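Risk register update: the risk of archive-format incompatibility is retired. Evidence:
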Amino acid sequence: MDEIPWFEYDEDDLDVAQRAFVDVLAERAGSWLVDPLDTVVLPSEHTSDGQLIVYLDIGDPQRNQGVLTVGAHFDGSAVRGGELHKQDFTIRQTASEFEAAGSPTELANRAAEWFEAVLARPLVRCEWHHAGRMYAVRYEYADTGQGLSEGFESPLAPDALRKRLAADGVIRGRGRINRPGLGQPDVIAHVRGVRPDP
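Archived output:
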């Protein structure tokens, strides 16, 4: 069975600089603890800004749940990366953005270092349970508490909590249920990255 390559692409879709960039990135990705299928190359002819986009989907394998998409836009002489919008792959304005200019090889190495730093951050899954079922989940970085994604199943939540959230105006479509609103989680599970100190 053939091994699936990281950041797989069709040579006809990329120019020389783009191939050099992706090849270095793919070589570095071989040491990452990610599934090669989670690494993607979008050729510039298929992107809204006409730049090559490489991205990585970071998920929770225990829950088979996507958590975060991070990637970089490469124009041949500069690269810009960050958290990507999951539909149009534009870069969201966050503190984890990076920019650099240089040769394709230099930029691929800078992008790889950035991806590696993102993958090393301690990502945890916080769970809130009631009657033996999970009614809320939040993925966050343990080092900062920055939330990445969350979910809330109102029918599974305790009545008192649902009533309190509704009274506070935090109901579907009208607000966001965040960790302080839920109290301490019942479970905090390490998903990936460096484990935080106990």
